[in-house]
Amino acid sequence: MEKTENLFPADPSVLSDRSAIVKTTYKGEFWKPCPGTTKGYWCCGYQILTPSTGCGMYCRYCILQAYFPYQCQVMYENFHDMEKEVKEKMASTKMDVIRFGTGEFGDSLYSENYMGVACKTAELLRPYKNVILELKTKSNNIEPLKKIRSPQQVIIGFSMNTPEMIRIMEENTASLEQRLEAARKCEEMGFFVAFHFDPMFVYDGWESEYREVVKRILDTVRDYRKIAWVSMGGFRTMPRLKQILKEKNSHLPLFSGELIYGEDGKLRYFRPLRVDMYKAMDDEFRICSSEIPLYMCMESPEIWKESKMISRIPNGLPKYLDNRAKVMLNISQ
Q1: Taking the model in full, what pTM does it have?
Q2: Which distant-in-sequence residues (6+ apart) come within 8 Å of 247 by Cβ?
Q3: How far apart are CA 1 and CA 196, in angstroms?
Q4: What is the tens place of the pLDDT at every residue in 73-106?
Q5: Domains observed in the chain
């Protein structure tokens, strides 16, 4: 992200308050490709829109605390500039289908009652029949979504974890039960839903507990065709996060196990552990339905092969998800 105009209040207590919402003007590009690294890992080809940043909840592993010099939420007042940019780029793009998301630099729905930018973004993209928008969240704040006029063009993506990891790692977020109930209501409202197991953690009992979450998802969603996709990613992070958490004396248990440096410079679990995680999840989903699109976020070709998930993406990961988006949008392939 480029720098914003220096309109932030000087009071450090505001800048460090995750619940605070500060308004400012953004001078950079609102629409960018996913910043996923290309250093040995496969990216899904996602497109990011950023009408706001930050999150009022707090996950111990949140990379935003290392990415931004402030912890408050930021709402960009110049939404009209994002509208102009989107219209200009859509007029010249050669992409036949576009998967947009707003959850890369903050939670898409947590402060929607105040900001309203998720609904405004959905309305901005509504005229483009080759566009699908995903709003990612760890909240259950779905009431404002009733304003969206074309729910069939919108995916509500819920970040998922086990109850134990939500308790330890995800402070002030919705419980697993609340997220599942919100997903059920979103399906009833006509939205597609998605589920993102990212990050996943290795701990005593991890496999049975993650498998149980999968079972609960599949018991909640009534029509599996309304599941846009499911993603997975083992815990990985910039090394700087460890130092930030050490200063707060809160780096355990995140960094209590052995991690290695990946080709992208991030700390990751050992390869065999990641393979075990993905194979278990793939197996659990296939028990119920082999048709639910399942993919790994920022993983290497070797992991795709060793987890036996490479067969899912014969034409590559971006094409796999683009084809799924076309099905949801009723676009001929």
Answers
A1: 0.95
A2: none
A3: 23
A4: 999 999 999 999 999 999 999 999 999 999 899 9
A5: 12-329 (3.80.30.30)
